[in-house]
Model the fold of this input.
Amino acid sequence: MSSDAISLRSVSRTYGRTYSRAVGRTYGRTRTRDGRRASYDDTAVTALHDVTLAFARGSFTAVMGPSGSGKSTLLQCAAGLDRPTSGSVTLDGTELTTLSEARLTRLRRERIGFVFQAFNLLPSLTAEQNVALPLGLAGRRVPKARIREVLQQVGLAERARHRPTELSGGQQQRVALARALVTRPEVLFGDEPTGALDSRTGREVLALLRAMVDREGQTVVMVTHDPV
Done:
């Protein structure tokens, strides 16, 4: 078994179309004269260029940088939410870029956890019902002991029967974190998980994530503007 939970090799991601034109043809301001083909597109944007890196098992990695630097694109490609234009992404020996959409969806549901800036909780469900949702959608039995365990881990055992409107923002994000952990994911990805929280509550959520790494050996990769 590799020591890396997930690895990227020569990953690039370009948005927008690129055009190839043969010898002597002009497109925009480019003319080819030497027998080679050229690509040119005013609208193409390269968010990632030839990125190679790996995330070790049981590590906590924070990807930081200004807006527009490609942080979220990196996370989305690593998590199988977006397909790179070129390169490969491997999760514990499984090559994500070659999977069909159906198999990729199943892999994300069963082996990857996600926490976003938006809590994305269903308002009609209690905290424990929201946590159980991924297991139910996967057609798996929902063990109540596991639901209680993850709610206990995030400090919300006493709030299991409360609905989102009865919880603070920090508590709702803790429910979202418990929901991401309930399937025992190989990697937990966070895209600005503290972005909608005040600084104190954000630090508490970061401390929870750090504790998951230290106590449970969870692999965490997150994009953030906050110091960690």
